[in-house]
Amino acid sequence: MTLSVVRDERTGVAVVTLNRPEKHNAIDLETAADLSAAWRALRHDETVRAVVLTGAGEQAFCTGIDRTAQVPQPPSPYAIDDPLLTIGPKANDLWKPVVAAVRGMACGGAFYLLGEVEFVIAAEDATFFDPHTTYGMVNAYESAYLATRMPYGEVARLALMGSAERVSARRAYETGLVSEVTPPGEEVEAALACATTLASYPPTAVEGTVRALWTTRARTLTDAFAHAPQLIALGNLPPRAQGELFAGRERGEGFRVR
Question: What's this protein's family per the entry (predicted)?
Fold first, then answer.
């Protein structure tokens, strides 16, 4: 199974876990479909009033799209088929609160998920980065999500520095991406505590607040997403050239954590 969903009817909390630890919880097409289906199912489950999202294992929360995934693209420069655009809770019309618990790496397409949760709790060993520019790809959707959560200069540095830098959990906390930092292994427990509290409140008031908060970000994201396909079409290197850059770099080569 690429994804597990565990419901606790006593607390009203569901835990959604990306379950590909051997692949650093990278998202292939099956996982993308499973995520969308899980959020849709949770919309209709009255026993669930809050959700925790996390990744299996200690190495990574999620490292974005699985590079082995084959995604055919339309010939038009004004359109792009991106399977990650439908993996988040808001993209699937789920307005129950979602709290993310992050340990290890969160990078690239992970921000499609983190961009649609209410807040993020991270272990001290969590790191955040985006390697798009390193491999000749425009950082469009991810940077748009991040720009609604962090100061512009911090988003620009993360998006532009690519794989050369990783943002520590502490720095992510200082800049607003993360709301709480825990010792490693305690991030899920902390997220569950918050989600349990949220689930104990009248659900219509909680979901209404989630929607009210989202409206402050929705217009910005809509505008940014409208330009993303053209920017990607114009700025991305051809897939073969991207692959050569990826193959030419050693994993973990030359990065610093700040």
Answer: Belongs to the enoyl-CoA hydratase/isomerase family.
The answer for residues whose C-beta is within 8 angstroms of residue 28's C-beta and 6 or more apart is: 2, 20, 65, 66, 68, 69
- Owner of token pair 């690519």: 162
For residues 224 and 144, the answer to whether their CB atoms sit within 8 Å is: yes
CA 211 to chain centre: 19
| Helix residue ranges, H only, the chain | 29-43, 110-114, 141-147, 152-161, 169-174, 187-199, 203-235, 239-247
Neighbours of 40 (CB within 10 A): 14
Contacts of range 70-77, beta carbons closer than 8 Å, 24 or more positions apart: 71/29, 77/229, 77/230, 77/233, 77/234
The secondary structure of 57-80 as a DSSP string is SSSEEE-SB-TT------S-TT--
Question: In the predicted model, what is the mean pLDDT of residues 80-89?
Answer: 91
Cα 115 to Cα 143: distance, rounded to the nearest angstrom: 10
Rounded to the nearest integer, the mean pLDDT of the chain is: 94
pLDDT at residue 248 in the model: 78
Q: How would residue 249 be classed by pLDDT, with cut points 50, 70 and 90?
A: confident
